[in-house]
Amino acid sequence: MHPPITGTAAGVPFTALPPISGGPAPLIVTWHMLDAPRSNAAFAAALPMNDLPAWRVHLGMPMCGARMVDGSMDAGLELLREDILMAALFPFVRQATEEFPAALASIRAQLPVDDGPIGVLGGSLGGAVALRILADTEIPVFAGAVVNAAIRMRSVVALFPGDYLYDDASEKAADSLDFVAKAGAIAGRAPLLVVSGELDHPALRADALDLVEAVGKRSELLPIPGLAHPLADEPGIEPAPQLPLAREVDAGLTTWFRGHLTDAGPED
What we know:
Layout: E1 5-9, E2 12-17, E3 27-31, H1 40-46, E4 55-59, H2 74-82, H3 84-98, H4 100-110, E5 118-123, H5 125-136, E6 141-147, H6 153-157, H7 168-176, H8 183-187, E7 192-197, H9 202-215, E8 219-224, H10 244-260
Parallel strand pairs: 3-4, 3-5, 5-6, 6-7, 7-8
Antiparallel strand pairs: 1-2, 2-4
Helix pairs in contact: 2-3, 3-5
């Protein structure tokens, strides 16, 4: 097994895991959670998908990992306290999506990845990024997957203490991150695996079921008994040994992406 490759792609930190061959292969890109594992390196350790004949490039989310301010999550937590949606959740997803085309071009310039469609994977808030790539961009994707994902942003906001007071701007932002409402666009883009821990927040589990139903025959639900929302132990910033339940998720993702790699060949 080749060691991880670390670097930056158009300013976005990444942890890349080469295929066993180490040479040219399809590309799967991931975005991590804000819960543990909350960095690209930690997410790579939790869900390495080592048996895939593909490059797995794990990108860092804004304000996380190498992009933490002064080496801590304090600045990000302050944004959550300032305005859960408009200062943190929405701009994080928007930035991660908007910076991705340049990051993808940089990855392709640095690593021997195929130039065909990519796979996309996101956990929790990173799931909203993966879903937005599917719903709101034209980047070719051969398959997508999300784990305990932020499928409806209103459901995520409701997890935080207190009643959030929506205004016109925040209503519009929340609507733009309702991926059940965008299921038609997602269905037209790529097959989607929705992994849902059976001990995840009830609202997020309900959203997972709704998304699979709305996307229809191109989607599958993978429930994981015993899995709550996190995929790693705290603090979740540095790589850590893979937990048994994360190993189950990893196996499901590996099977899913392997089954669709034939659709990931280089473009003519």
